[in-house]
Amino acid sequence: MSTEVAGNVNIGVVLGLGQFASTFLITWLYIRHANRNLDPVADRIRDELEGGDA
Amino acid sequence: MDIGSPAVNITIFTIFVVATLFIVLRVARTNQTAADYYAGGRSFTGQQNGTAIAGDYLSAASFLGIAGAIAIYGYDGFLYSIGFLVAWLVALLLVAELLRNTGRFTMADVVSFRMRQRPVRTAASASTLAVSFFYLLAQMAGAGGLVALLLGVEDEGGQGIVIAVVGAIMVFYVLVGGMKGTTWVQIIKAILLIAGAGVMTVWVMAKHNFNLSTLLGSAVERAGGADGLLEPMNRYGASGMTKLDFISLALALVLGTAGLPHVLMRFYTVPTAKAARQSVTWAIALIGLFYLFTLVLGYGAGALVGPEEIAAAPGGVNSAAPLLAYELGGTLLLGIISAVAFATILAVVAGLTITASASFAHDIYANVIKKGELKANDEVRVARITAVVIGAVAIGGGILANGQNVAFLVALAFAVAASANLPVILYSLFWKRFNTSGAVWSIYGGLATAVTLIVFSPVVSGKPVDPATGTSASMLQNVDFHWFPLDNPGLVSIPAGFLFGYLGTRLSKEFNAPKYAEMEVRSLTGAGAEKATPH
């Protein structure tokens, strides 16, 4: 972990910052997937169900 | 130590209080129904709510505590921020949207959806109140230490008065502003906190030629060449047991966040599940940004103030960020950062108070005692009375716990949230067979395991006496009844919560298939979910 990559920045620091990057990446991927693929289906089913009630 | 001017600190803090008070009074006019009082009329946007979540989540412990931990222990302090951030993926991927669609105001709404109402609501409310109480006490007790540091109030009586005033302002916000007022306080506080930390971060980086390597280098140099600052396990690596303790802590942080009742309740303030998703996205962005700032602030405080000076200051580790502010921008920046730290405590306490009062009024009073047969106004009236009682308890507890070692209270709150709340939330959302008995077992089992293990852990009794100070790091001195080796119970109590839920379910034949189908459709599509109230 203490192997230096650039100056005093070692692998540990890079991995730590990588956790931030991966969290942001997973969030972005999920949001994209949900907006594109999940929402249209969910909205359609919801409209069908609630349309029937009204 | 004489740094900064208490007058400046108090003035800036007073400006914050007056400004937020004005906003709270303005938005309070639309506070009539339960949905207004508990959920701000469900009319906040995802961005607003995400900012408010960041405001709720970034407590004084995470601002002052983490910056200090990085300054003194280095990389291990950074690991806290990673845990606190990564935890949000659990909330985003598994909990936020489904919770918003299924419930109305509280965690118990979701958990009791397809169960027998009274036992499950009572249990869910008990664990909500337990988590809120531990968290609240930690915040209020921490306020005492902060007062000593920032306002120059040294004697216990004076600190007690300040704690009481802070508590009273907070209760007033909650009573008058309800969730809407509380949310605006969170939003303003989050913006101030992140902006303040951002300015300091840029300042620290400018002093080091915007080069992270230079900053790390000077932090190590200032600490007398301690390379351990840049490596993990500087603090937790002493033995196998401390490493295990670190894993336990990390588990509690990562799995506890999505079970914190005041965070869960925030998802009800937006109109749709999609807005709940946006809220978490915003919260992740803001919280991530903030923790990146704390990395720079922590090493910056180490480099510019020095670990020995920080440890020797009143408030110890917690003083790293304020001392750094003074080093950079003198009295004025210290005043601003101090006021922001205070505002942080105020806002987090307000969020916890409204959550706890909502859980009591909505779950216990309205659904268990009155069995759902009461006027809507009655419930809000009870919630307001409860908020006053909780505020009084928090003030009293805060004064009593002032000066105590309270770090364990936050760890306990997260451990209880992860052991008692998260298993039951996940089971009820995703496990078809889950039933009343499972829910009750899971909550009480997780809660009892976490609390018992904490009581018999080294944080309460039995840590060796430090020859330098003559006191033990445990809460109680001169007694030793600990038998659980770890500081944090998560490693045992979280699996226990899941196991109890499994066993309880298997031991009961109850299973409500139509209700599960209804819940599944509702949680995934939002059909039948609570809408925003029109104004």
From TrEMBL, chain B:
It is a multi-pass membrane protein. It is found in: Cell membrane. The chain crosses the membrane at residues 6-28, 49-72, 78-99, 120-151, 157-175, 187-206, 246-268, 280-301, 332-361, 382-401, 407-429, 441-461, 481-503. GO terms for biological process: plasma membrane acetate transport. The keyword Nucleotide-binding does not apply. PANTHER family: CATION_ACETATE SYMPORTER ACTP, SODIUM/PROLINE SYMPORTER-RELATED. This is Cation acetate symporter.
